[in-house]
Amino acid sequence: MSLYYQDDFVTLYHGSCVGDDAEPWWTADVLVTDPPYGIAWKKGQNNAAGSNAHAGIKNDHDASVRDAALAIWGSTRPAFVFGSFRAPFPAGVKQTLVWQKPVDAGVVGSTTGYRTDTELIFLTGKHPKRPPSRSSVLTTGGGVSRYRTEHPHSKPTGLLENLIEWTTGTIADPFAGSGSTLVAAKAMGRKAIGVELEERYCELIAKRCAQDVLDFGMAS
């Protein structure tokens, strides 16, 4: 694992988050990550829907890499972990949130008339006790074009800010992907440590973070 990008708030490493040299992200206070779900996702070209083909996400053949990272993180600190209805849930889930995507999401691959427009967010580890003042269904406005990037599973920064808001300390994202967690943390003045396996996405993250907090195109 090697240092790829750094500024006053964000530190990004290129490499495996479960390698022997992956210790830097272990020191954070909160885990907010969108790991490979273990669903062997890929998609073909769909010109009518404006959807480009993609060969898939590395380590998405099963949930073993996700579970290895969560085992490293442990159960004494809070974690928010995106996931799928179609894959095994991680161990030690305390609660499950549902992200309801924008109205133009989940069209590709839907054959029943119902869009596949929701994702799960698993809460694991130790979270502070609070009165139940928020819904467990999280929504984002606008369309998918507002947060779409070169990564096929980008998340809106506003969604990540919602999760980060109730936490304190440094954020870790060992599956940084498009970098939305890191961008959101930086916009909130929070320190963040990211790890990304694919160099092309490290480049994307570095470009987004170098824009400082002016990432309006990815906001929800």
Please describe what this structure looks like:
The chain has 220 residues and is α/β, with parallel strands linked by helices. The protein has one domain: Rossmann fold (3-Layer(aba) Sandwich). 18% of the residues lie in helices and 20% in strands. Strands 1-2-9-8-3-4-6-5-7 form a nine-stranded mixed β-sheet, with helices on one face. The longest helix has 12 residues. The protein is globular. The relative contact order is 0.23.
Question: Low-confidence spans: pLDDT under 50, at least 5 residues?
Answer: 214-220
- The Rg value, from CA coordinates, equals 16 Å
Structural class determined from secondary elements: alpha/beta
What is the chain-wise order of helices and strands? EEEHEEEEHEHEH
SS element count, helices: 4
User: What is the number of domains?
Assistant: 1
Question: Which percent range fits the helix content?
Answer: 10-25%
CATH architecture: 3-Layer(aba) Sandwich
| Name of the CATH superfamily | Vaccinia Virus protein VP39
Instruction: Find the CATH topology.
Output: Rossmann fold
**What is the averaged pLDDT score?**
87
Overall number of strands:
9
Shape by Cα distribution: globular
User: Biggest sheet: strands, sense, closure?
Assistant: 9 strands, mixed
